[in-house]
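User: Could you write out the 3D structure of this protein bound to 1,3-dihydroxyacetonephosphate? I've included everything you need below.
Assistant: Certainly. Input first, then the structure.
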Amino acid sequence: MPIIAANFKTNHTRASTAKYISLVNNYLKTNSTSEVYIFPTATSLDEYETVLNLSIGVQNAYPTKKGSFTGEIGTEQLDEFFIKTILIGHSERRHILGETQEAIAQKFQYFKELGYKIIYCIGEPLEVKEQGLQSTLEYLWEQLVGIDTTYDKLILAYEPVWAIGTGVTATVEDISNIHNAIKKEINKPLLYGGSVNFGNIEKICAIPNVDGALIGTASWVAEDFIKIIETTKEL
Ligand code: 13P
């Protein structure tokens, strides 16, 4: 049974998020036992009704309970809504918001100690991919420095930067090579992300060592996301 996750990034309002989660939850009540995650914006977090196999997570948080960290949220704010799932290491936070590996590793350690489920993202930019598989793998290992890859609540996501939001998905061969290499070293669920959609999800989830998908753009319409879950539920 695959793991299917929706990353809203900076999309949806509280009102549309509530509708979306309710639609997905209603679908899951009767139709699927897939493990499903939804990551809404921080302003759309709430105490939503969810079935057991649906978790609402936060896209980012600061490694603190509370304090003076302007613009950030800590676990006191997450506890209000019983959020126990977090995305860490997403390429947009690494490359646009400038998070360093050291800061990411500290964040990982903090949320690990609190027992959060962590979806931890790694992925190489185009110029690294163009240098070949060896360079790509070296780059990915650097993104795992300071990360406890034996953590029992860890899910990894391989998201090549050049495939995110571009409509260019990695080829089956690319995904296979990377996923096989990662799985050889780390025995954790491993998602693929990067321009996954209804048209390619089945092919991607059928690749050995792909345990599911982390989806941005194609997940933002509830009906489309439900179709994706429906397509993969027998895999
Ligand atoms: P897209 O599905 O829009 O390419 O985004 C992938 C992603 O970044 C999910 O975290």
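Residues 7, 90, 159, 164-165, 193-196, 214-218 surround 1,3-dihydroxyacetonephosphate (CB under 6 Å).
User: Perfect, thank you.
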